[in-house]
Amino acid sequence: MIPARNLAVGLPAISMNGSAPRCEHLDGLVPVAPQSDHCLDCQDRTDRGATLAVCLSCGWVACSDDSPSRHARAHYEETDHPLVAALEPRPWWRWCYVHQRRV
Length: 103
Prior knowledge:
- The chain is mainly β.
- Helix content is about 10%, strand content about 15%.
- The chain has a five-stranded antiparallel sheet, covered by helices on one side.
């Protein structure tokens, strides 16, 4: 996938060769503000070096799958909010938990 910020909400996410299926979870997304600048579930823990992900449905910020805690995945499992994006601009990415791929 092309993990670039210039992928506008609602436009098809395609691979560089144009063959990746479109993720319908991108349809209808509205901008949300991140609720914090740290994992809201790791506040009292020492695992602060993980990549942070922001839920594109509600703005919840949590540690991504590179953390042993995997709080962003837990948030998806609790809420069914399918999309997250990197909180930091570099490297930037979006992930769909339903399709298990970058979008």
